[in-house]
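FW: tagging you since you asked about this chain on Friday. Here's the raw sequence from the shared folder, copied in full. Didn't touch anything.
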Amino acid sequence: MKVRGVVAGLVLSGLASQVQALCSVVATNAAGFGPVSSILVRTTTQSTSTTNGGLRCTGSLLSLLTTNDHFYATITSSTAGMVGPTGDVIGYNLYATNNTGAAYLITRGVQYDFARNGIIDLLGLLGGSTPKTVPLYLGTITGSNVAAGIYTETLSIFWDWSYCSGIGALGICLGRDTNSGTTTLTVNMTVTNDCTITAPNISFGGAPVVSAFGTVNQTINISCTKGSAYTVGLDPGQNANAGRRRMVSGANYLSYDIFQSAGTTVWGSVGAARRASTSAEVNPGKGMGSNGAQVFNYNARIYTDQTTPPAGTYTDNVILDVGF
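HL: got it, structure written out here
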């Protein structure tokens, strides 16, 4: 009986030495969406990830993951998304894998078990001796009408795990790695100013002499980032001469210009010749984002103090630019 006791003690001691704590909570790597235009934030899902969500494990060939084990992550925050300089919020979803289906959606404040759906196994966290971290994936929720600026959120991630960290020759679990800890993850995005512009072509039609051309009255509709102050310029075109825009047909020119509102001030591209967002005829002020376009009236006329050029089709290209 004494001999049996000694032998049993030696065997258990040898097997127990294989059991070790393999996982730990570590500092995360920030998840950055990078610079994104306000229009894309509103209309298109933006994706990013972090390679390190705060849990690092050194695998072991003696580790075993069973249905009784778990790797819980509970993610919380004091805000509902990334918050910008004016208080606007950009919401986003968190996922456990880049296969961002419903099965992998991490709901804030609810435990998500990374041991399920084969995630831990696919990551190889328990299958080798190289330390590996758990990634997290993020995708923005479209529809946010936000101002430009830097948006950030700090997430609190509580990791709680328990699994068989050592098995014997007969598949018996010899010990468990059970622990927990909290880390934080910073999520950020830089929203940049952007605009959508509707600017129809100008057509003067046809006339036998310059004095017979009529005035063209039209509008330019611009929808820029919420809260942005901007100016709109029209360049001199491709054939300007002596302070006038000109259309060209072969070697011949037809002078014309584009004037602000219904007046006689030329709409240009520099200094006071530009139009400020506050001067819009409809919705003057700062940009409104998706809440409405700002409308700028203009009139275009052929100069009647020029000699009528030969018949032909006369064209020019004018560049519209928006400056913030």
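FW: The chain has two domains: 20-192, 195-323.
HL: agreed, and Residues 268 and 292 are 25 Å apart (CA to CA).
FW: great, closing this out.
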